[in-house]
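User: I'm curious whether this sequence folds into something compact or stays loose and floppy. Could you predict its structure so I can see for myself?
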Amino acid sequence: MVAAAELRRENPEAPTPDATDEPRAARSFGPLFIVVLAGTMLGFAGSILYSEWHAAAIDNDALSIATDASPAIEHLSAARSKILRIQLEAAASLERATEGAPADNAALDVALADLHRELTAYAALPFYPEERDRYAGAEAAIRSLDAHLHAFSTLVAAPDVVRARAALKEG
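Assistant: Here's the prediction. I'll summarize afterward.
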């Protein structure tokens, strides 16, 4: 305080430090602090909204996999095994015809009906983009398989083993 009094005597117009100078400096940071705090809070709230939006998208994708893709994969996998079963039944039918046994294509017909049942169940599920176009190609291939199996069954029933063997190798 003595130094402040001496300054005042030497230069009466010079500002003197007083108790109000410090709070004025602290008050000048108040609005800046509020702006920084508000910006931080808005950034935090924005990041929460963004992460929730992404989490909802992930949840929707997971639900789609569980309700659409997973059953579709199961049906397609079962259809694939039915095609293998059709091939095995056709080979067994040809083998029986080669041995001179009467034609019995019941097992082949059952395997084909099972294939159609799996594909019908698959087609009842919602398709993903571009999946319908691919399924149309698969349907065309199944129609071709049906035609080949009908011709094969006719040859086995004839019994025309040589042409039935050629038809089996072709189809």
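Summary: The longest helix spans residues 21-98. The chain has a mean pLDDT of 85.
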